[in-house]
Amino acid sequence: MFWTADRIYSQGIEQAQQRIYEFFLEIVRRKSPEEVLEDFRDLFINFSKSHNPEITEALDQILTAYNEKEFFYTLKRCCYILINNWTVSNNRVGIQSLIDIFNHSSIYKNPKSIKLRTIRIWLQMFVKSEDFQSLQLFTLHLEDHGSNDQKWGNRFASYLLAYQYTNPTSPLEQRQAANLLAQKMKDKFRFDLAMYTARVGTQSSPQNHQINPTSLSNNVINLVTLMLTKKSVLNCQNLSINFLENIKNSSYQEFKVSLLKYLDFSVTDAEISETVQTKLHEGLLEFKSNYDDYPVNISLILKTTKYLIGEITISDRNQPTELFHVLLHHTNPINLVVLILKILLLNESIRPYLELRVASIIKYYSQYSESKCKSVIAFIDMLNIALAIYAGETRYNIVKMNPYDSYELSNSNESDTQSDSRISNFDTREYRIFSQAR
């Protein structure tokens, strides 16, 4: 092995970074958040050598090399070391205080020291970067964004975090913190939904009133009822299990033909139904056609389900697809949700991929006000409910309080329109939703 100047230089930077990481890993476990934040501020904001000269010298090595990229990476990883530990310990105040450090006016002052001036310039650039926006996601659950029309997308931060925990180039601590927070948000939504649906229709006291966890109207309970009672949705899990069992010895082409029957997309509007079916049929039969004669396998199923999710959500160019527009604006958004659910149940390992696509949809539409994105928001709320019911740890059961009443919730012989109409007129006083752990 030949040691070049570049390699020695690179190793020197890496060793300096490692000393800084180990320092923050050590102090975050034994010091109070206030003391940790003081050390963070001394190093990255004030570049002070008074408390930790060895660590300041390590950062000085990065500054001396004038390596802006490595400075950003070091700063970001140190932030996530703290956030990761404080997320585990549920220290919300510490996380918020860390983000607040970057709003301090001292960052915009022009000091005499050349190195400190360099740090301040880089910090100003960092605050304007996407990396800092990613950091801010960890404080969104601390605030009420319900009334902020311009930032409605922040309410769905669990999806936006997918950019971080699925990115292999992100620091390990960032991926861990993002995944942990996203899971906490999903768990909270499932719990809030279970508590809300359990109390709708009851005469609970004001102090026991549960907040609707969605932006939908209070008829959200009707949506849950619809998803539980409509035959096409109720049997989603059984249908997926049977489908996968039946295609085990099929060729890939036979699998795709069976898959189209399994998806069975149909709505009362014949023109819309034909448009969607034709698009799905043409695209799917063409996809990976060179493998048509091969036996279907897990890899091909995974690629096919990812392809379908992409076709009905958003393209690789981050533009909503034609099918997404049709399904969102020309039918009830629940039809799109059911289609996604059927695909997801074939291979649940594609969920991170689905979450990335939904994140891209949120990012695309966030440039518009909430009032212009009601259909998109309703779709995401409905998707969250579907995932809570079918992919969560809570089982939902509907019970008729008066079993002698002639009203029936579902009738396999009636049309979707009739079924939807009946459920939209659903009287929560006659039925109750009960939730329990699976």
Topology:
Layout: H1 5-30, H2 33-45, H3 53-64, H4 68-88, H5 92-101, H6 114-127, H7 130-136, H8 157-160, H9 162-165, H10 172-199, H11 220-229, H12 231-234, H13 236-246, H14 252-263, H15 270-286, H16 298-311, H17 322-329, H18 333-344, H19 351-365, H20 374-390, E1 394-400, H21 416-424, E2 431-437
Question: Would you kindly provide a written description of the structure presented here, covering whatever features stand out?
Answer:
With 438 residues, this protein is mainly α. Helices cover 61% and strands 3% of the residues. The protein folds into two domains: 5-143, no CATH class; 212-437, no CATH class. It has helices at residues 5-30, 33-45, 53-64, 68-88, 92-101, 114-127, 130-136, 157-160, 162-165, 172-199, 220-229, 231-234, 236-246, 252-263, 270-286, 298-311, 322-329, 333-344, 351-365, 374-390, 416-424; strands at residues 394-400, 431-437. Helix 1 packs antiparallel against helix 3, helix 14 (252-263) packs antiparallel against helix 15 and helix 18 runs parallel beside helix 20 (374-390). It starts with a helix and ends with a strand. The model is unreliable at 1-9, 144-149 and 405-423 (pLDDT under 50).
